[in-house]
Amino acid sequence: MSDTTETTGAPAADAHDALAEKAGQYLTFTLGGEEYGIEVLKVQEIIGMMPVTRVPQTPDYIRGVINLRGKVIPVMELRTRFALASKEDTERTCIIVVDVAGKGDKITVGLLVDDVCEVTEITEEQLEPAPSMGAAVEDAFILGLGKMGRNVVMLLDVDKIFEGCTAALMANAL
Could you list the residue range(s) of the whole structural domain that residue 13 is in? Predict the structure, then answer.
Protein backbone atom coordinates (compact mmCIF):
# COMPACT_ATOMS: atom_id res chain seq x y z
CA MET A 1 0.00 0.00 0.00
CA SER A 2 2.81 2.41 0.83
CA ASP A 3 4.45 1.66 -2.56
CA THR A 4 1.31 2.97 -4.29
CA THR A 5 1.33 6.13 -2.18
CA GLU A 6 4.97 6.78 -2.96
CA THR A 7 4.44 6.14 -6.66
CA THR A 8 1.41 8.44 -6.91
CA GLY A 9 3.12 11.12 -4.84
CA ALA A 10 6.19 11.34 -7.12
CA PRO A 11 4.51 13.01 -10.12
CA ALA A 12 2.95 15.61 -7.83
CA ALA A 13 6.36 16.30 -6.28
CA ASP A 14 7.93 16.56 -9.76
CA ALA A 15 5.23 19.02 -10.88
CA HIS A 16 5.78 21.06 -7.71
CA ASP A 17 9.57 21.15 -8.29
CA ALA A 18 9.06 22.19 -11.92
CA LEU A 19 6.82 25.05 -10.80
CA ALA A 20 9.30 26.09 -8.09
CA GLU A 21 12.03 26.40 -10.75
CA LYS A 22 9.91 28.99 -12.59
CA ALA A 23 9.78 31.38 -9.64
CA GLY A 24 11.91 34.48 -10.09
CA GLN A 25 12.04 37.87 -11.76
CA TYR A 26 9.98 38.52 -14.88
CA LEU A 27 9.73 41.51 -17.20
CA THR A 28 6.04 42.12 -17.72
CA PHE A 29 4.48 43.68 -20.81
CA THR A 30 1.07 44.01 -22.43
CA LEU A 31 -0.44 42.78 -25.66
CA GLY A 32 -4.08 43.50 -26.40
CA GLY A 33 -4.79 44.51 -22.81
CA GLU A 34 -3.42 41.27 -21.35
CA GLU A 35 -0.26 41.05 -19.27
CA TYR A 36 2.58 38.68 -20.11
CA GLY A 37 5.96 38.01 -18.54
CA ILE A 38 9.34 36.73 -19.68
CA GLU A 39 12.31 35.75 -17.57
CA VAL A 40 14.53 38.77 -16.91
CA LEU A 41 17.64 36.69 -17.54
CA LYS A 42 16.59 36.30 -21.22
CA VAL A 43 16.27 40.08 -21.72
CA GLN A 44 19.21 42.02 -23.14
CA GLU A 45 17.51 45.40 -23.34
CA ILE A 46 14.33 47.30 -24.12
CA ILE A 47 14.35 49.81 -26.96
CA GLY A 48 11.79 52.22 -28.36
CA MET A 49 10.35 51.70 -31.81
CA MET A 50 12.75 52.22 -34.65
CA PRO A 51 12.56 51.66 -38.39
CA VAL A 52 11.96 48.00 -39.24
CA THR A 53 13.00 46.75 -42.66
CA ARG A 54 10.61 44.15 -44.07
CA VAL A 55 12.14 40.96 -45.43
CA PRO A 56 10.37 39.17 -48.29
CA GLN A 57 9.05 35.64 -47.86
CA THR A 58 9.13 35.57 -44.07
CA PRO A 59 6.09 34.60 -41.98
CA ASP A 60 3.65 37.43 -41.24
CA TYR A 61 4.68 37.46 -37.57
CA ILE A 62 8.24 38.47 -38.51
CA ARG A 63 7.91 42.25 -38.85
CA GLY A 64 11.39 42.45 -40.37
CA VAL A 65 14.86 43.36 -39.16
CA ILE A 66 16.45 46.29 -37.33
CA ASN A 67 20.00 47.56 -37.19
CA LEU A 68 20.85 47.70 -33.50
CA ARG A 69 24.26 49.29 -33.05
CA GLY A 70 25.64 47.56 -36.13
CA LYS A 71 23.98 44.19 -35.50
CA VAL A 72 21.02 43.21 -37.66
CA ILE A 73 18.38 41.34 -35.67
CA PRO A 74 14.96 39.93 -36.65
CA VAL A 75 11.87 41.38 -34.96
CA MET A 76 8.85 39.22 -34.17
CA GLU A 77 5.49 40.92 -33.75
CA LEU A 78 4.01 39.05 -30.78
CA ARG A 79 0.46 40.26 -31.52
CA THR A 80 0.56 38.49 -34.86
CA ARG A 81 2.37 35.42 -33.46
CA PHE A 82 -0.40 35.03 -30.88
CA ALA A 83 -3.17 35.63 -33.47
CA LEU A 84 -4.31 38.87 -31.81
CA ALA A 85 -5.87 41.71 -33.79
CA SER A 86 -3.27 44.02 -35.29
CA LYS A 87 -2.84 47.52 -33.93
CA GLU A 88 -0.91 50.54 -35.09
CA ASP A 89 2.30 51.29 -33.25
CA THR A 90 2.09 53.98 -30.56
CA GLU A 91 4.61 55.90 -28.49
CA ARG A 92 4.38 53.03 -25.95
CA THR A 93 5.17 50.30 -28.51
CA CYS A 94 8.64 48.94 -27.95
CA ILE A 95 11.00 46.11 -28.77
CA ILE A 96 12.29 43.74 -26.09
CA VAL A 97 15.65 42.36 -27.23
CA VAL A 98 16.14 38.79 -26.01
CA ASP A 99 18.48 35.85 -26.48
CA VAL A 100 16.83 32.61 -27.56
CA ALA A 101 18.28 29.15 -27.92
CA GLY A 102 19.24 28.38 -31.50
CA LYS A 103 20.86 25.36 -33.07
CA GLY A 104 24.02 25.19 -30.97
CA ASP A 105 24.14 28.85 -29.95
CA LYS A 106 22.00 31.79 -28.90
CA ILE A 107 20.20 34.03 -31.37
CA THR A 108 19.41 37.66 -30.58
CA VAL A 109 15.90 38.68 -31.61
CA GLY A 110 13.44 41.47 -30.89
CA LEU A 111 9.90 41.04 -29.57
CA LEU A 112 7.52 43.82 -30.58
CA VAL A 113 5.06 44.49 -27.72
CA ASP A 114 2.38 47.09 -26.95
CA ASP A 115 3.90 48.34 -23.71
CA VAL A 116 6.48 47.30 -21.11
CA CYS A 117 5.16 47.35 -17.53
CA GLU A 118 7.77 46.43 -14.91
CA VAL A 119 10.17 43.85 -13.55
CA THR A 120 8.37 41.87 -10.88
CA GLU A 121 9.24 38.99 -8.57
CA ILE A 122 6.90 36.02 -8.94
CA THR A 123 7.13 33.62 -6.04
CA GLU A 124 6.41 29.90 -6.01
CA GLU A 125 3.16 30.58 -4.13
CA GLN A 126 1.98 32.89 -6.94
CA LEU A 127 2.58 30.30 -9.67
CA GLU A 128 0.00 28.02 -11.23
CA PRO A 129 0.64 25.51 -13.99
CA ALA A 130 -0.55 26.47 -17.46
CA PRO A 131 -4.02 25.11 -18.08
CA SER A 132 -4.41 22.61 -20.91
CA MET A 133 -6.32 24.22 -23.76
CA GLY A 134 -6.56 21.07 -25.88
CA ALA A 135 -4.72 19.95 -28.98
CA ALA A 136 -6.21 22.70 -31.19
CA VAL A 137 -4.52 25.47 -29.19
CA GLU A 138 -0.77 26.09 -29.38
CA ASP A 139 0.15 26.64 -25.73
CA ALA A 140 3.58 25.02 -25.40
CA PHE A 141 5.17 28.45 -25.00
CA ILE A 142 3.26 29.16 -21.76
CA LEU A 143 5.49 28.39 -18.75
CA GLY A 144 2.72 28.98 -16.25
CA LEU A 145 0.49 31.63 -14.76
CA GLY A 146 1.48 34.20 -12.17
CA LYS A 147 -1.25 35.37 -9.80
CA MET A 148 -0.65 39.06 -9.13
CA GLY A 149 -3.45 40.24 -6.86
CA ARG A 150 -6.61 40.03 -8.98
CA ASN A 151 -4.62 39.85 -12.23
CA VAL A 152 -3.10 36.87 -13.98
CA VAL A 153 0.19 37.20 -15.86
CA MET A 154 0.91 34.63 -18.56
CA LEU A 155 4.55 33.61 -18.20
CA LEU A 156 6.14 32.85 -21.55
CA ASP A 157 8.99 30.58 -22.54
CA VAL A 158 10.80 32.74 -25.11
CA ASP A 159 12.69 29.76 -26.54
CA LYS A 160 9.41 27.92 -27.24
CA ILE A 161 7.87 30.97 -28.94
CA PHE A 162 10.68 30.78 -31.47
CA GLU A 163 10.74 26.99 -31.64
CA GLY A 164 8.41 27.05 -34.63
CA CYS A 165 10.83 29.43 -36.35
CA THR A 166 13.75 27.42 -37.56
CA ALA A 167 17.32 28.65 -37.45
CA ALA A 168 17.07 28.88 -41.26
CA LEU A 169 14.21 31.37 -40.90
CA MET A 170 16.31 33.50 -38.58
CA ALA A 171 19.21 33.31 -41.05
CA ASN A 172 16.87 34.37 -43.89
CA ALA A 173 15.65 37.31 -41.82
CA LEU A 174 19.23 38.49 -41.55
Answer: 2-173
